[in-house]
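Q: How would the structure tokens look for this protein?
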Amino acid sequence: MRKPVLVLGLVLLALLAAMAVKGLLAEPPSLRTQQLPGQFDASRAKERLARILGDQRPHPADTLASDLVRARLVEVLRQMGLKPIVRDQLACNELYKQRGVSCARVRNVIVLLGPSTGKALLLNAHYDSTPVGPGAADDGMGVATLLEVAANLKDRPLKRAVILLFNEGEELGLVGARAFLADPLSRGVDSLVNLEARGVRGPVNMFETSRPNAAPISIFAGAVKKPIANSLGTDVYRLLPNYTDVNSFAERGWLTLNLAPIGNETRYHSAGDDIASLDPATLQQMGDQTLALATALSNAAPPNARGDRIFMDIAGRALVTLPLAVGIALFAGLLLAMGWVAFQRGGLLRASAAILGAVLISTILCWLMLTLIGAERHGMFWRAHPVWTHLATYSSTILVAVIVMRAIAGNLDETRQRAAFWFIFLVVGGAVALIAPGAIIFFLFPPLVALIGMIASQRSRRAEQIGSFGAILVLYLTWGAMLGLLEELLDGGPMWVFAPLGSLIIIPILIEARPFIVGAGARGSALVSAVVALLCWGAVAAVPAYSADREQRFVIQHVADVSNGQNWWSVLNDGAPIQGAAGNRWKRGELSFSDRPRWLSPAPPDPASRAPDVQLVGQVQSGNERTISLRLIANGNEHVDLIAPPDARISAAGMEGFVRPIDRNESGKYYIGCFGRSCDGAILRLTIDKLQPVEFIVLGGTGTLPSSAAQILAARPGFARPQYNRDESIAFTTRRL
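A: Here is the predicted structure in token form.
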């Protein structure tokens, strides 16, 4: 092998290694070995959480398991010298970003610190879990954090009131948050720190603020020493279907900061979200941030800062903030200046075509490779070892960029390619900013450093190269950390999306590596790039899809349509075919109550299966609107759901004191549900904007499977478990109301 080819191979491997470890830029600080007075003690917080969770069984709202968790929580608070208040309410809340209302009996636990009058800071976490897991991170981490923060604050002379809210029913539709808004204590709140979790490890992100964001960002930047936050993330979060208690609290206009880790989502909402998997370093970071924010907001009124800020952390060490207007002006100046430089140097059209072609073709290649491997392996075959799929994606980007840029812009030197890249980079930034203005912050500093080097090159030849290397370093520290977080956030796919994102880090490095690429020759550079890419894709095809730490989602349900006597086995997974249990009888399909694709197979009837029912107890008509009152009849089911077609025109639903509006601007079916023991016999009120009868599906479920499920349970893969939904027996019927 020729030496230039070997050198290029080493350069490319070093580049891939840098892409592999970029997530370390945003890792939480190491766990402290020595605790100083007044510091957050993660070990003590985790010990308290273990006591509260007990045997770690799932504890959704209004269940015996939740009663036991709440009793232990109250006991821990009393042992700490605090005086918890328990509010008991049957409440309902609208389902955000969808059509629906959810109800449950919730018992919020409240602790008051500091003065008894004046405006208050609300620290909020929920102590209920989903029906499928113990919720050690979601939101046991938040509960543990509030307890340790309370231990640190309770003896301090606070200038403002602090309310600690351990709410119940968040997992059922933010019901506990809605109940608190009816509590007189909520009227004094002016600021909120909300604690959540979407994983069990990794950095704690500040991913949502109240709007405009100048005041919360001012508090966050001044209080938190090791921040993980950026305005691109907060903008993107608003576009996602996810929601937290903040969605309910937002109507009050409180200053708000929302914190959560997102590391290893494969354990989220599953039995894997247990105490053993909870990273103490992540808990420590959440605690440090919450304690710092609570200290700042309990001793001074929220700042009177106005307007919007763009912001980003630098490898978790500092937070850079700018007024949005300043960021836009700086961005516009950079775009014009870099465009002029690129035009003056010449070759802009060819260089731009090469850069954009490399991005587009590498994205297509990655999509094709993932599709081909997916046709053979099925499902989320990258779940156990996502790093190999990321590296294969980035190595494909390198391969395509080496070939395409050499073919189209091979005779353009680095100075012209540099200017063209940073101009294209800024154009992309402008396009992204139209959707997410907070993204502008990520497109300012790398091209600014590069431009300074270009201007300084008139006095020193090496200045431009130094500036280019500086720009790449800034790009890696900012984009690299952000891309590492996105890899965690989008671990369910689509994985090909990392090709265009990664290319914005990779291409400027390849421009600087042009002498090595030219030295290796056209064939040599293509060959070494192809070998690296093939090795990575080979690893993707060979490594196990699932592991003990990162299991496959696999939910088994027995579904009975009582109205016509049909019965099915339903399996919700990542799309991988069902093996073992009557494999040739499974078909992909949907059921009448859900649009979610699943595997279906005929099932024997379950003698114990009984659908819930409703009894009409009242109806009032006003013009073309009617309000009906229904008594829920659980028939032994743990929840009762009413599901209506998209044309049902239901404008509001709920129970006495908590009839909530339904956003009909959202699409899809209407879902109105009640979970827990108190649903049986409860009166539900619905307002329907039409006189014609509506056909409802009345559905219920229990967390047990019939004995006939033994064969399917035995066929569940070794590294697989329920996630998001529990194994369940579901029964439903229809009613025209």
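The first helix runs from residue 3 to 20.

The mean pLDDT is 95.

Upvote if useful.
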